[in-house]
Every structure is written in C-alpha cells, then in structure tokens.
Amino acid sequence: MPQPDTFRPEAGMPLISVQNVQKSYGAFRVLHNVSLSVARGEKIVVLGPSGSGKSTLIRCFNRIEPHDAGTIVIDGATIDAAIELTRLRCMVGLVFQNYNLFPHLTVLENCTLSPRVVKKLGRAEAEALAMNFLHKVNIADQAGKYPIQLSGGQQQRAAIARALCMQPSVMLFDEPTAALDPEAVSGIVDIIDSLAADGITTIAVTHDMGFARRIADRILFMDQGRVLEDAPPEAFFTTPQTERARAFLSQML
Ligand code: ADP
Ligand code: MG
C-alpha cells in the first residue's frame, strides 16, 4: 500500500529544526540543550509547569528572546543575530497572552499596519487582505471597532488575524485560551485546525489540557528548561514516560 503520510520530522526537511539551544537570564539557565523538530502543518502543544521555559522557548523562535547557543532553523532560515527581524516576524507570527493590539487603531487598522509598512501594500490591497483574514476568524463585522470595544475572545481573534496578514508559515500562541470561555476556546480550536489545513504550523503553550488534547498532533513536555517528553497526545496522556510528567498530569487531571 502506498503511504501518503510519510512526511515526518525525521524524514526529509523539518520546517523547524532546533538543536542544543541554550539560554540564560544572567546566571540562571532557562533552556538547557533543547532539541526538537517540527514538520510543516504540524500542531504542537508545549506543556509543563510554570517557569519551565515554555514561553522563553517559543519566544526564541521569532527572536523576541535571542538564544545564547545552539541553532534554530525555520523554513531554511537560520535564526541568529544576522537575520532581518522584520522578515522573521512576518514568517513567525506570535499571538501574545494579552493580545497586544494597538489601542488607538481600529481592528482593521491593526491588521493593515504591518502589511502597508513592511510589505508596502497599498491601502486597498492591505484592507482586502485584512478583511479576508477577519472573515476567516469570524470577526469581519468588528473591523471598524477599537480593541477596547471587543470582548477578550474577539481581541484574540483580531490578534490572530493581524498575525495572519503577514502570511506566516508558523504561528506561535502563548496560553491562547487562558482568558476565554468554552465557546471561545472552541473557536480557537477551529481556527488552529483551519491554519493547519492551509499548511501553517502551530506551536501553542497552554495549561489547558482539554485544549491540548483537541489540537495537538504532538505534545512537548518541558520541565526546568528541558524537553522531557515528545510524544503523540494519546501516548503522553495515557503513558507518560517520566516521573515528572506523571506528577504534572496527576495535578492537572
Ligand atoms: P513558562 O512559560 O514555562 O512559565 P518562562 O519561559 O516564562 O516559563 O520562564 C522560565 C524561567 O525564566 C522562569 O524562572 C522565569 O522567572 C525566568 N524568566 C523569564 N523571563 C525572564 C526575564 N526576562 N528575565 C529574567 N528571568 C526571566
Ligand atoms: Mg509562559
């Protein structure tokens, strides 16, 4: 039988390749020799206790935090001091926990700003692009409002649309469901599924085990700056391989 689904991170080129990444804040080592790879279109969930380095790891992917040693390659580009940050941040979108929308701009203007400034699109073209993504995340009707006029879930969607307007190949989410009600969480699940269908790779940090189970193709479990487990969700949740992950899960479930 032919096997269409043979693309695996270890076979062929991964979209993201991380090798022996280290990072410290002063004398405190936050990331110890982290290595992992991610295939295009994969949905990765990063779990682990607070302070284990999850946010720091994903922030290294778009160089909001620079790593100290080791290599990160995304879509063929080495993420180091030489990379052009504007280009990197188009390629790797990050949706912050508090959304970070510009309060003085409407939702539409939040979405068109970078395409106009960075991608040099004209107003009409940038607005058409933005409306396309606002439709995709189901808030096209809020385009003329200011962030403060939106619910938390709507602000989250606006932040996702704004990142999508840069046409990234990777979307990073840091605790995207922390402030959302269950219905809004389902909306985020649907959006992440549709991103994957479009070939966009998702890496999400979360404490929400239900959300993790719903979106993850693969779970990375971190503790004290190390990736201790890297497994499909069924395997991770039913038969974690480390004592640390068992203890973590027993507190969570
Ligand atoms: P997580 O997202 O898993 O909760 P973080 O990556 O935010 O963990 O943080 C990992 C560790 O690094 C924590 O001990 C945190 O206090 C520390 N840390 C994070 N950011 C900074 C910073 N800018 N300066 C100093 N220490 C930091
Ligand atoms: Mg964090």
Automatic annotation (TrEMBL):
Classification via Pfam families: ABC_tran (PF00005)
GO molecular function, one term: ATP binding
Keyword ATP-binding: yes
SMART domains recorded: AAA
Domain of life where this protein originates: Bacteria
Residues in ABC transporter domain copies: 16-249
Protein keywords: ATP-binding, Nucleotide-binding, Transport
SUPFAM superfamilies reported in the protein's UniProt record: P-loop containing nucleoside triphosphate hydrolases (SSF52540)
Keyword field contains Transport: yes
Coiled coil: none
Family assignment from sequence similarity: Belongs to the ABC transporter superfamily.
Protein known as: Amino acid ABC transporter ATP-binding protein
